[in-house]
Amino acid sequence: MTGDIFRPFRLGQRWESATWKNVRWLDGIAGTAARLAGWDVATVSWDPALRRSHGNVDMPAIYDALGLPLDRAGWVELLRRPMLPDAIERELLDLFDADLVVGYEIPDHLLRILSRAGIAVVDVILHPVRFLDDVVFALRTNRADIHALLAQHAVAREAIALQAGLIRSKAAWMRPPLPLRPGAALVLGQVGDDRAAIDTATGRNRSLADHAGRLLELCADSSMVLFKPHPYDPAQSDTGITLRRLQAVQWTNANFYHLIAQPEIDVVCALNSSGLVEAEYFGKAALWLAPPLYRFGDTAPADGGFGDALPQDGAWCNPAFWSAVRGAGPAAVLAAVRPNRLRRALNADWGFSSIDKVVA
């Protein structure tokens, strides 16, 4: 079990892994299920607190060997490099002495290293749709047989559309979040230091400030424009400063799902927010200002690469799934499906609980 081992996070005066919690979370769910299916499971991450069945990645030493500062700027520069030195790639590969590597949003460098070594990989990615009975994860792989298994457990678009319809139905009985005019547009903010906001071609952080002209056009084309800032984006970010200068834009902190369930909103605009994917299920036009970070779909892996990430039902959390991955007989399904199991384990809900109350 692994994750985005390269990503640092500032904690006071020092830097630690930004993703050690993700790897522990993944091991608790997929790792436990795989152990029950007969796999010998270990973790590899930048997490010196772990000892048993754990390979700690000495990331400060790797950054030092690369001549990069152990900070966000160094991380962005690492992402931009087409390759890592052979010695570092060999060092990393030695930690992943396994038949299968399962990771949470594995970085491209590590995907390439593992796939080139002939190691099967399953990458677990948080899917953009967050309004189902539980959060959905999309899985991608470099193995055609595993991709075929993922296809058997893919969440159907029709199921997502039906849930969006239920939310729209509920919103019809609720007081509107604010006065709206037909032909309105909604602009979504994002966290400035999120991985999805990085332009690896330039090393810059993308922001809505880069698209001020397009936002002006949106104001001219819409009856009104709402801006919903990301709760973790600083007030004085480039995005915040730019949106305040656009006097036609009205800021709102209303619940996202309550907003996109309103028939007056026609367009949802953002860099590459997950909300753009969700908005389309509510019948909105999605205006993407930057390419998405991940490719979701059903294309199978080919030529040593990775297939599309397929949104999954809860099968991957059970031993039977991991028994099938290793080609063994089916194991008993122990964890019955129930709402919010993964939402609780992830300790996050992206505002879904507000709209999901029996009476909101």
From TrEMBL:
Listed name of the protein: Capsule polysaccharide biosynthesis protein
Species in which this protein is naturally found: Blastochloris viridis (Rhodopseudomonas viridis)
Upper lineage: Bacteria, Pseudomonadati, Pseudomonadota, Alphaproteobacteria, Hyphomicrobiales
